[in-house]
Amino acid sequence: MKIPSDVLAVLDRAETEGPALRLTGQLDRNLYTRTNKALEAAGGKWNRKAKAHMFDGDAADAIEQILLTGEITTVQDLGFFPTPPAIVEQLLDLADVKPGMVVLEPSAGRGAIAGPLAARGATVDCAELLPENAAVIEAAGYARTLAVGDFLSLAFGAEYDRVVMNPPFARQADIDHVNHALACLKPGGLLVSVMSASVTFRANTKASGFRARVEDRGGQFIPLPEGAFKASGTGVNTVIAVIPNP
After folding, report:
1. From the CB of residue 242, how many other CB atoms can be counted at a distance below 10 Å?
2. pLDDT tens digits, residue range 165-211?
3. Which of 16, 66, 166, 218 falls between 20 and 30 A from 77, CA-CA?
4. Angle of helix 5-13 versus helix 59-69 axis, rounded to 10
């Protein structure tokens, strides 16, 4: 998310004190609205009592990178769209998760899938890219282990009964994540993943090769309703991939 120069100038003049950021000077309505949008994208929330935008950490640290780069990397930019509860239940039912199973959730977000997995009696290992999301999972106690970093750069053994996941979709990253996750299954294991519906029809080598791999394993794609992730901030049409490990 690129930040316009006039908004950057407002942020540069802002006063910070601990988690609080206060705008200075008179701003017209349009400029204030755009500045507020940038602050919210960076994690700031307006607090009427404090008359400031409040951040979870130090406000100066929160805006320093914005001033240096002119950009904000939002969770949506990184492909983080939480899985709605109804879809989580469908994923877990398709995975036939039973108490005592060892399950990997490699794009764990804030635990939308990991929490219900643990509630069903599974032992859950997680990976999560964003440290602030990982902190939520750690505090909740859902995971036996929690690796913080890009799943594609992490190594997990072939020790899992199930992999249940909702990976990022941008630039066909979901295919990369699912292929990487398949190597984590025990013989006879099962992977169940939300994926972009484009995986079922795109004609490029990556998508067609992935479809062939799913077919070879006796897997399937189950369409989800249009707008299934609208409440999470994306209109991308989705499917559930169900892929056995021989």
Report:
1. 19
2. 999 887 788 999 999 999 999 999 999 999 988 899 888 899 999 99
3. 16
4. 150
Residues 38 and 97 in one domain: no
**What's phi and psi for 102, nearest 5 deg?**
-100, 120
DSSP string over 80-114: --PPPHHHHHHHHHHHT--TT-EEEESS-TTSTTH
Please report whether residue 76 resides in a domain. no
pTM above 0.70, yes or no: no
Q: Domain check: are 103 and 42 in the same one?
A: no
Among 69, 93, 125, the domain boundary falls at: 69
The Cα–Cα gap between 81 and 91 comes to 15
Q: In the listed set 69, 103, 122, which residue is the last one of a domain according to the structure?
A: 69
Q: Which residues of 110-141 are buried (b: 16+ CB within 10 A; e: fewer)?
A: bbbbbbbbbeeebbbbbbbbbeebbeebbeee
Between CA 83 and CA 235 the distance in angstroms is: 13
* CA atoms of 69 and 155, how far apart (whole Å): 32
Do 212 and 174 belong to one domain?
Answer: yes
pLDDT tens profile 218-239: 999 999 987 666 655 555 788 9
Q: Which domain holds residue 20?
A: 5-69
Q: Report the distance separating Cα 57 and Cα 19, nearest Å.
A: 5
Percent pLDDT > 90 in the chain is 71
